Amino acid sequence: MAVTQSLNVNGKKVAVKVDDPDMPLLYALRDNLGLHGPRFGCGLGQCGACTVHIDGVAVRSCMLPLSSLDAKKKIVTLEGLGTLEKPHPVQKAFIEAQAVQCGYCINGMIMESAAFLATHKNPSEADIKNALAKNLCRCGTHARIVRAVQNAAKA
Ligand code: FES
Ligand code: FES
Known about the structure:
The chain is α+β, with helices and mostly antiparallel strands and 155 residues long. The protein has helices at 25-32, 78-81, 89-96, 106-119, 125-131, 142-154, and strands at 3-9, 12-18, 51-54, 57-60, 74-76.
């Protein structure tokens, strides 16, 4: 039987109607709400492409059942991190460093980095590499990604 789940996404209250209350948040974001920043990579919590923030913490949305959420939890996707006119410092730094090849991993790299920098004001290169160690990039743009995060930390 279909159920309706209330969520708070990018500052707005929304309701999604789903057949399975344990459906992963990622599917609701992409398929019900049309938010395509978070990507489906592995679906197993192993690549980071699906990362979103929940109450400021980077979370793998492919593994998070909708039933574990409610409208009090603040979900932020890449679309809600900044705007075209006013991008988040991490988004701006990724653009300036041209830290993207195919772009598939970049949602996760940006969301993970933004959550990390919110609690680590002056990270070392090793700290940044450690924070992003579980975000996979098949294109090998790691050097530029780390430079972008270093620049965002200084911004
Ligand atoms: S798609 Fe979620 S971690 Fe890979
Ligand atoms: S830029 Fe292609 S997977 Fe990272």
